[in-house]
Amino acid sequence: MLRINELRKTYSGRLQALRGISLEVPAGIFGLLGPNGAGKTTLMKIVATLLEPDSGAVEMNGINLITHKDQARQMLGYLPQEFGFYPSLTGEETLNYFAKLKGVSNGKERKALIDALLERVNLSPARNRKVGEFSGGMLQRLGIAQALIGEPKLIIVDEPTAGLDPEERVRFHNLLSEAAGEDVSVILSTHIVSDVSNICSHMAVIRHGEILASCTPAEALDRLRDSVWEASVPRESVSAWKSRCQVLSSQMFAGLARLRVISKGQRPGEEFNQAIPTLEDYYFDLVSQPEESHAIAS
Amino acid sequence: MTSPFKTPFFAVFQNEVLLNSKRVAPYGLMILFIAHAVLWWVKGPAIALGWATNSDFYIVRNLKGFSFLLGLPIFTAVIMGDPVIKDFRLGIDPLIFSKPVSRGEYLLGKFFGNFFVLVCCQAAFTLTQLAMQAFPTSQMIVQPVRVLPYFKHFLFFVVITHLVLAALYFTVGTLTRNSKIVYGLAVCFYPVFIAYGFLFLKGLPLRWRHVLDPFLLEAGSPSRNGFGHSADFLNQFVVRYSADMMANRAVMILIAAVCLAILYVRLAIAERPANVEQLSLLNLSTAAQGVYYDSDSFQEMRGDRGDAPDYPGKEMLPIVPLPEVTRANEGFRANLNKLTAAIGIEFRLLRTERSLVVIMLLAIFLSTFELAFYDVVPSYSAAYSTSTAKSLLLFLVGITVFYTGEAMHRDRELKVEPVLWAMPAPNNVLLLSKFLSTFLLALVLVVLVGVTAIVIQLIRGHTPVEVFAYLTVYTVILIPTIVLTTGLSVALIVLLRDKYLAYAVSIATGAGLFYLYSQGFNHWLYNPVLYQLWTYADLTGAESTRVRILTHRVYCLAVASLCLALAHLAFKRKSSSKGSGVNGRPGYSVWALLVAAISATVAVMTGLMIALP
Questions:
Q1: Are B52 and B142 in contact (CB under 8 A)?
Q2: Is B419 in contact with A146 (Cβ distance < 8 A)?
Q3: Element containing residue A207 per DSSP (H, E)
Q4: A128 touches chain B (CB under 8 A)
Q5: Which of B283, B337, B426 has the CB atom closest to A105's CB atom?
Q6: Which of B345, B347, B434, B577 should we substitute to test contact with A (largest number of A Cβ atoms within 10 Å)?
Q7: pLDDT tens for residues B120-167?
Q8: Model pLDDT for residues B552-576, shown as the tens digit of each residue
Q9: Dist. CA A206–CA B467, nearest whole Å
Q10: Do A86 and B281 touch, CB atoms closer than 8 A?
Q11: pTM for this one?
């Protein structure tokens, strides 16, 4: 279990990236959902020992990750949002180097591990190709392979699926699901709601450096039960609906606007039909509310 | 009619100038050329021989020397070799070629943009010499201030010559998309040109020699490069462009045009087929099999959320179990293993640096060039090793500063840093691997120069070869220098956190120190390279001098060690706080403090020993 307590970080004395975040991350895949600039990457960097917080604590299995970075790094697997590898090394050489840095010093064991990792991420055919020639999806898979070296207890993946095509996305989700176990926590930071809905057992929504909610996806959907409504309306009436109820989304289709709104227990209008709530609805509902209301709610 | 300043050609041209204005190389070249212009003005043969420093003859003499010597043909490759390669490497090419820019506009914009920058760099030499007319030294003959001849001769003798070289390098670089080939070509320039002169030009009549010599080395000047003529004659000599010379320039422009025309015809904008095939083996899918999010999801509600992916992939890969491995992250042996691995990778990455092939060959060539004309007795090896060590010093300082900077910043530039820094490898592994790999690189250069010197010694029959002389000189003089400059560079880069700022500070400090040394202020304490402070006899002769030199080397090593310890303490990647290590043992920061204290003590003690008479 990873415990984050009252974590604060301010950049250049002005920009408050984290405003006293507290969070409990159990074993399994934990989705950290939030819009761009919410503070996800800052939080990930602090947990990955790459950034010093102003205050607060991060603890995993009794070890304070802020003060005992050297020990923390021994149980960590990290895939940053933006990363690269040495382009002149092959995929196998890259993993071999990182395995050595992770302390896998026995040559035979290292070779067996790298073979299995390459097999697992489906890069065996490309093992001798230079990383500089890899596609985006291959790089991402090599990235997760290096994060899996050394039986990490905490795997942090920051925005890993942005830019991947559907097939690569599924592969990546499967890899993460395989990596998560009874004693392994995976933190998946993302702004793509379907990533969380597909593979995460727990989730939190972050905005402006604050946690807006922390629950399971099922609990999140329960909170919106019988509250989501949908209709196709003329474009001109959209602004009127927006002033009358909380609109989650509006999208133009065949000359009409498809509206998706929240209305607890009451049909907003004749045109509306009840819809099954989704995590997108929950997310939009949370992040579209004014900041003060969250402060009160939390 | 469209303004020429609003054409795609001008946009590409302007962008190239802008990009070059953000590179270090043009500024470095300008500084180098300005320094040489001043040096040639003050220390050239004009004063001794009574030549006017701004006479037509002397201006052309200097410009020809500038154009041919000083490695200018190699520097041309630095600017002109990879402008298009960079676009393809950075993946900007599809963005550019999807705009209404023709291949011709793109190529000409690229070529002339970079050539303009090159000419600006070269002009620094001419403009400095022009300005130096206002600062004549005593006994220097300076005619009334002249302006036009500088520009005229610069255009005629330098710009057009380098237009051909620029077109050649640009064409080869763009067609092969391999900058190493361009640099290889540049390194081969001098041998090829000398062979061209001896094997081809020499046998031709004078007229044809004038027409076909791209540098016009024999044309337009008095015979024997001015030597043997009276000063009065040379000062009144007017350089006129003969018909042969004009034909030569026309031929050069034609050759440049042919190069660019070939390039235009042969340039393929598309990615090389071989690469496409390779990438397609495991490339992203066509996305036809699954869509992870569609706009119709508003109507087709999904009720099975949280159970399984709602867009099954084409294939479910079998789960491959990972074998259990033993990990060793604590203790000296574990860290030594990590350090060895990191040094191996760092050294390998250094070897792939594009500029290395040029720099190393140039350093070997210039450090051993003098030996070909050397005639010394009685100990050839002592003289050879001393000469090469002195010539090599400047290169070693430059190489260690530059490549340490590259090694230290490579991880950030390639975005490997976050992955690497999250690894359980201590800071000393990350820092020492960069330090030791650069040290190894410099050591390889020293060995190569030593071997070359021995080979020259054998070829010239200057036997016996005394390997001990080489070992003594290189071990005592060069190796501590490499250690010190590399250590200083590591500390400087860690403290300043900016590669280019560190380069600027290093260059300024180096130039300042060498200026002080040349003025006679070369005390042992601030002369870590022992510039002008030793001879071979000092290393093998009297005990007192030898001890002083050895003490000085210990002083340098202690300063280097202090720098590394400080770099460790100031390194941006933080270790466990409060100096805590594992199991109550002192952390790496505590060790670094201890090393810093010991190094500082040794440096102070040895410093006092060498400072006191």
A1: yes
A2: yes
A3: strand A202-207
A4: no
A5: B337
A6: B345
A7: 999 999 999 999 999 888 888 888 999 999 999 999 999 999 999 999
A8: 999 999 999 999 999 999 998 887 7
A9: 69
A10: no
A11: 0.71
